[in-house]
Amino acid sequence: MSLRRTASSTPERESTTTAVAGADSSERTPLLSEQVRQAGPSSSSSPLAATTAADSSRRHRSREHCQRRATKPLLPKAIVRGLGVLLALLVIALFAAIVVQEIKDRRDPRFGKGRNYPAVLAHGTHGAVAAESHRCSQIGVDVLKQNGTAVDAAIAATFCTGVVNMFSSGLGGGGFMTVRVPRKCTEAEKRRNKQKRYCSDKHVIDFRETAPAASHSRMFEGDPMAARIGGLSVGVPGELLGIEEAHRRWGKLSWSRLVEPSIKLAESTYVSRELDRRLKMFGTFMLTDPDWAPTFVNADTGTLLRAGDTIRRPGLANLLRAVASQGSKALYEGPFAKSIVDKVQEKGGILTLEDLASYKIRVLEPVEGTWYNRSIFTTPAPTSGPVLISLLKVLSTYPDWNEPGSYMSGLTAHRFIEAMKFTSGQRTHIGDPAFLNKSALDAIDELASEPAVNHMRSKIDDERTHDEIDYYEPLFDVRDSHGTMHLSTVDESGMAVALTSTVNLIFGSQVLDPVSGVILNDEMDDSSTPGVPNAFGLFPSPFNYPEPGKRPLSSTAPAIIEHADGSFYLAIGGAGGSRIYGSIAQVLLNLDWGYTLSDAIERPRIHHQLLPHQVSAETTTEPSRLDGLTDRGHELEVLDINLAVAEVQAVMCLADGGPLQGRRRRDVWAASDSRKEGVAVAY
């Protein structure tokens, strides 16, 4: 089946946030993990714990929400209480056994040390925000509590992330968002699909950075580092215009209300442990850079700021005040725009005021696929959304994929890696659709077609991998990508957002305009440069050569998934460059294997992008999986899981018949990846 483009037309008391013990476990029993999480939060902590079935029914008729109907108890209360006590004792005993097993497993030299940050599973009954910073998740939930939409919450959290995790994203970057807008089903839709009870429209906003008007295909020949550091690497940013358009269409609260919390953070906040870590790893250049030092260097000690230190970004605070009152004009016109352009050109760039004034977002139809009995909607080219759907379709051709214990299987790991290698080859077909001919566009549309999927499946050999790159049929070489932030939100109506934004490399181009406080992207590094083939004989992709106004290839794939009845299931996405779509797929697999949302995100991941020719496995990956890969000829690279090379954020509503069947209402769950100190909030 070809890709289908759908019609576009600190947590408060009432938030339940559960710390996940032993999040780096490599041998946890999936369903026991679910039980342990449920045993943690007290239902009495929620003011809605006593919601009656009648109240639930009335709300169900008025809006979709994440609720379920009350069910009649099957056993007398006394028996239920007795069983509950026995179950609790059993859980405690088994949990102790799990902890012992974890400690024993960590003696394996391949496991490395434990995790830097605790994992958190947030639970609520109204809505949730999963951002990569606890502060930003809370800001988003505060918006939801004031009757803001999921889009409002996503916007507020995006502003926040650009302030506190400026190494990943900000107003100097760009990205994509997938939005689910619930609505009533038409009579025709009901007749066409009797199983469908809920309907919605899905939209994609493309606010990806574009190449400046003076760009040309050979602009980085002889100086590849110029695509990574300095003014020439800067693309025209789009983040502010993208979220502004989303607010115009689906926002409810005032624009200034969404900006205000981030103004305060820009005026003064604290350095997080994650920012501290990034400064240590990537911030040495700031010590001698007069644009960066006033913000990131301690004036008394002459050293980089540390966790807990106060950080002030007065220039950004001034810009955000202007954005709150003027909207995007504050950045794309006037004195702030001139200051940004002057700074980029001072650093050797070609960005102009005309580039800023002429930037256009795109509102697109998502691409659609299926994952077992669910529908998945994600971003089209130039993102890796089509490749994500292709990967999932290849994996779904294995009938035993969801069998108990298959997660631990070396064969399962091998099949996943082989599917990753084939779909990484497919990724070389992708470019900016506005610059592709019909033949190239048709090729993208057919990436997840039944013939293409069957072809890849037929070439996966359960006994061995293949060293020949040509076996996986890549067309060209493509650039690796980096960095990025992702956040996911859902509100009480069932509106949901999956938003990914980036400045590309950590701290982008290393160009900071002190007047506006904006850190500029180095998105031109995602473009390809004509030249000699790589070590494997692959030439750079002409689909991805720099051209004026062109959007470079993106690894992002923010996705929204619905149950078979059309209700909301999951908003998910990730950060981490070329590892993003494989990380999303592994979280989906973990959910199907019975893990909680937090455990599904926290479990160690494996990765292969065809080039370089090796499997990357995180520490704490099960020895059985590693052995299953090496036995089939794979070369292994083991990375410390705390390096945070890829992170996933997601919000979820469980379906009837799921592990929480019998509760009075559906529950909202949210989790942010602890690899990046992420903490989600729900209420």
What is the mean pLDDT?
84
Uncertain segments are 4-16, 18-63, 67-112, 656-664
What is the strand content? 15-25%
Q: What spatial form do the alpha-carbon principal axes imply?
A: globular
Gyration radius (Cα, Å) is 24 Å
Measured as a percent range, the helix fraction is: 25-40%
Sheet having the most strands: 9 strands, antiparallel
Structural class, by secondary structure, is alpha+beta
State the total count of DSSP E strands.
23
Count of alpha/pi helices: 21
User: Looking across the biggest beta sheet, what order are the strands in?
Assistant: 1-10-11-16-17-21-22-3-2
- N- and C-termini, Cα separation: 39 Å
Report on the structure:
This protein is of the alpha+beta class and 683 residues long. It contains 21 helices and 23 strands. Helix 21 links the parallel strand 19 and strand 20. The longest helix is centred in the N-terminal third of the chain and has 29 residues. The radius of gyration is 24 Å and the shape is globular. About 17% of the residues have low confidence.
